[in-house]
Amino acid sequence: MPSIRSGASASALLVAVLFLPAGLLCAADAPPSRFGPDAPELAHLGEFAVGVRTLHLVEPAQADVLAFDAARGTAPLHDRALTVDLWYPARTRGGERPASYTAAFPAEPPAPPASFTVPGIAVRDAKPAGGDYPLVIVSHGYSNDPAAMTWLTENLASKGYVIAAIRHADPSITDAAGFPEPLLRRPLDIAFVAKDLQASLAAEHLIDPTRTALVGYSIGGYGVLTAGGAGLDPGGNAVKLVPGKLLLPYTAGGANRDDVTVKNLRAIVAISPAGGGALAAWGAEGLRTIQAPLLLIAGNQDHTVDYQSGARAFFTQAVGAHRYLLTLKEAGHSIGLNPAPEAMRQHLWDQDWFEDPVWSKERVNAINAHFITAFLDLYLKDDGARAAYLNVAVPESDDGVWPAADTAPYAAYSSGTGSITVWKGFQRKHAEGLELLQAQPGAAAVAAPNADWALLSRYREANSSLQPDASRIVFMGDSITEAWAREPTFNANPHFVGRGISGQTAQQMLVRFRADVIDLKPALVHVMAGTNDVAGNNGPESDADIEAAISSMVELARANQIKVVLASIPPAADFNWRPGLKPIPRIRRLNAWLKAYADQVGIGYVDYWPALAAADGSMKSDLSPDGVHPNSAGYQAMQPLTLAAIQSALANK
After folding, report:
1. By three-state DSSP, how is residue 159 classified?
2. Element (H or E) spanning 641, and its range?
3. Side-chain-side CA neighbours of residue 597 (13 Å)
4. Which residues lie closer than 8 Å to 319 by C-beta, 6 or more apart?
5. Which of 430, 7, 372 is nearest to 213 (CA)?
6. I want to staple 302 with a disulfide (CB 3.0 to 4.6 A). Which of 153, 307, 451, 609 is the partner?
7. How far, in Å, CA of 18 to CA of 9, rounded?
8. Count of Cβ atoms closer than 10 Å to residue 562 Cβ
């Protein structure tokens, strides 16, 4: 509680105390893992007492990225020591003093780190209660500490999970030079700890190593997505930011990819995950290789890692997984830590590590604990009854209805059935400001009625900042175009503007054609569409459906005096996110239509097959990492054809 000046009267002090919210009076003494009466049903503590102990692991001969020698192009090797805090179901005698946790976060420069203490419910070194529990590895945010995530670690341990939270000992977030370390170390640390504990704790019969989950917050979210199977883009900015190509061997197709991949993985939870935006850690397609069920939790006002290119895009791209996206509307980035301890409430910098500007942190954590419990119980404990908490009656919580005629007690939890469409496990008037989407493996994202289906918002800010350019060339497309716009050969032309979005079909491109093409007033638009239509990303489409969307884009462009180059659909023998479709004949047939249509209406056409296709109609293996998307060499092979087609179309009066 804020201090009162020594000159304040006793009556003033009494008034101040009487009118402070009760939660604030006890917040400093309340363990964050214990929630109040308004928490959703599954948020509350479980049946077990909780123990905690500390482990010390060493990973030998690891590259010290912060000691990288640029002159020699090498990093020295050292033994990396990792401390792991372990929470578990325990037997306690009663009366033991519960643990408290102390840590320090970087303060606003030039102040020294700000220290804090968090009360807990766990008893240090208590005897485990039984064994063969699921194992959950937790990775905290940049410059954070497990002491700030006890809202989750203690809570899950009370429900029959063993929680291993890694102390990554990051460099200070205030020193930008330290950023390469978490980019390199996060997935390596997670995979190493998982492998070590799957063996050592199984030997103690404390865990079942075949039931493992990962939970990560912020940069820890980047770590668990990568360790959970997402393929880092060899040409992405995450790889480029780590000196000496130290991250390259761990990327998609890299020689050491297995070293950053957790085995026996049953579920992944990523809260405010980093990796999107300018970092572009997995490129356009890397998240497709995640197969474990995935729960993403984010605020749609997250301006730290960006919601649209972060969690929202990850949900769309991770088509290999049964996935969920829980969005807290108007929340920002800080939704993964405990409520701010009293010591961290004196300065805004310190408080903002913990608190959201809009949402109560106790409320955020209770909601998150509820859904994480349902998710882990379903996928790690095979508790099918928990699916009802995830299969909500309406995607937008605000649309839920609880008829006034229902006579259930005021604090009753919704059944989510029949005429009651308030989300299951929530109380009356307490399911507000949330959205929950889900999609099955291989299926396009299931959008709520008001969702940005075509991602009109993706380039809104970039479009508004463009200066007039009479020679502008806009490239409209999907992930192939999106990745192309990051190539040096593309960016060497100041008139080229990339407007590709991963996973999109021609229909989605048509919806955003005015915002991302016409309103930019280009001289010409290069349209490459069809790959995701053939793959069925938004469900089955006929050839006529695809042709109608593409011809509509052409008609819109010509009506606005914009010249057009239609591109062939690139070769592909298979789609790794929708295997077994055998798309070559259909792609050939659509390309024949594209050329004939372009000739008929007098617009440009560019055929990339001579540059990219093998004799059997697949993409040449040396020009693509996955048989669908060109690599840098592939884009270089396309470049002369692109330039020639553009020049010809511009010259055509």
Report:
1. coil
2. helix 632-651
3. 23
4. 288, 439, 441, 442, 443, 444, 503, 537, 577, 578
5. 372
6. 307
7. 14
8. 19
Contact 264, 199 (CB under 8 A): no
Amino acid in the structure at residue 226: T
At which residue do the structure tokens 């203690």 appear?
Answer: 154
Quote the CA–CA distance of 354 and 334 in Å, as a whole number. 6
- What's the CATH code, domain 460-651? 3.40.50.1110
Q: Judge contact between 524 and 646, C-beta under 8 A.
A: yes
Is residue 551 scored above 60 in pLDDT?
Answer: yes
Nearest to 354 by CA among 576, 118, 572: 118
Superfamily of domain 31-389: Alpha/Beta hydrolase fold, catalytic domain (3.40.50.1820)
Structure tokens at 535: 């793959």
- 400 and 288 in contact (C-beta within 8 Å)? no
DSSP letter (8 states) at residue 126: P
The structural domains of the chain, with segments of one domain joined by +, span 31-389, 393-442, 460-651
Q: How far apart are the first and last CA of the chain?
A: 74
User: Cα separation of 510 and 512, whole Å?
Assistant: 5
Which residues, 6+ apart, have CB-to-CB distance to 161 below 8 Å?
89, 133, 134, 135, 136, 376, 380
Task: Give the pLDDT band (50/70/90) at residue 93.
Answer: confident
239 — pLDDT class (breaks 50, 70, 90): very high
3-state secondary structure of 143: coil
DSSP 73-117: TB--EEEEEEEEEEEEEEE--S-PPPPEEEEEEPPSTTSPPEEEE
Q: Is the pTM of this model over 0.85?
A: no
Name the residue with higher pLDDT: 219 or 653.
Answer: 219
Of 219, 461, 458, 186, the residue nearest 336 (C-alpha): 219
The per-residue DSSP string of 392-405 comes to -SSSBGGG----TT
What is the structure's pLDDT at 2?
28
Comparing 84 with 450, which gets the higher pLDDT? 84
* Buried/exposed code over 499-518 (b: 16+ C-beta within 10 A; e: otherwise): bbbbbbbbbbbbbbbebbbb
Confidence of residue 443 (pLDDT cuts 50, 70, 90): low
Across the chain, mean pLDDT equals 91
3-state helix, strand, coil in the chain (%, to 5): 35, 20, 45
Rounded to whole angstroms, how far apart are CA atoms 570 and 587? 8
SS3 category, 301: coil
Judge if 31-389 and 460-651 fold alike in CATH terms. yes
Alpha-carbon distances, residue 648 vs 287, 288, 571, 645 (angstroms)? 38, 37, 24, 5
C-alpha neighbours within 13 Å on the C-beta side of residue 281: 32
Torsion from C-alpha of 627, 628, 631, 636, nearest 10 degrees: 110
**497: nearest Cα among 528, 474, 524:** 474
**Separation of alpha carbons 141 and 551, rounded Å:** 47
Whether residue 290 contacts residue 268, with contact meaning beta carbons closer than 8 Å, is answered with yes
Token pair for 73: 């192009």
For 282-352, where are the E strands, in sequence order? 294-299, 323-328
Query: Above 80 in pLDDT, residue 471?
Result: yes
Q: State both tokens at 150.
A: 């006890």
Q: For the segment 510-547, what is each residue's pLDDT rounded down to a tens digit?
A: 999 999 999 999 999 999 999 999 998 887 889 999 99
